[in-house]
Write a structure and sequence with these properties.
alpha/beta, Rossmann fold, 6-stranded parallel β-sheet, 3-stranded antiparallel β-sheet
Amino acid sequence: MNVKVYENADELIKALAQSVCDAAIASISARGQFNFVLSGGSSPRKLYKLLASDPYKKQIDWENTYFFFGDERFVPKGDPQRNSLMAKKALFDTLKIPKSNIFKVDTSGSPEQSAQKYAESIANHFQQKPVAFDFLLLGIGDNAHTASLFPHTEVLEATEATIKSVFVKEVDMYRITMTAPLINQAKNIAFLVFGKDKSEAVFQILEDKAGSVQQYPARLINSDDHKVVWYLDTAAASRL
């Protein structure tokens, strides 16, 4: 398990921002584009703002960078709960990213239709070839969920690398999420986790031998330390 621990959240985010830049440079050099999956929640907001500032923004060819979302709340287009709205304010607007480079989840239909449309748009972007994102960002919740892979939900049983809709009882809401197999196909996966309140979940996922993936869904994510890195601050790592 590749775990990197930093003194505080600011140092962690600086290191992660440089890792994103390095991956972007390598991907665009090799394949002409950088396919970047964003995480929702409050933790990555500082990262997105940093990427949109000097010196980081100058390192990335944004015209050839394409953005996706690991999950999305099934709420209307302009709802403030949407992950895409947070990313728009923190990253897209500042960098003037064209809409054609942003793959948002369309929630105008049913949850099932929304998931299917998103899966189709991703497949079309990859020209029906196997989907392997260049950099995929994840966080975790206090209950050890990641993306919208929540404990004891049906989506944890998914074996297909695709997009699924899932009703999450504990938040009383439908979510649209990448399945664990799709996440695991990414070339680089980074967990961004900071704060004392996440230390128990980090311990449960990385070290606790009890329990199952149904209890701790983030365990479904590949543990290959060549492509999966956990970025923690000392508070989040305090139980390791």
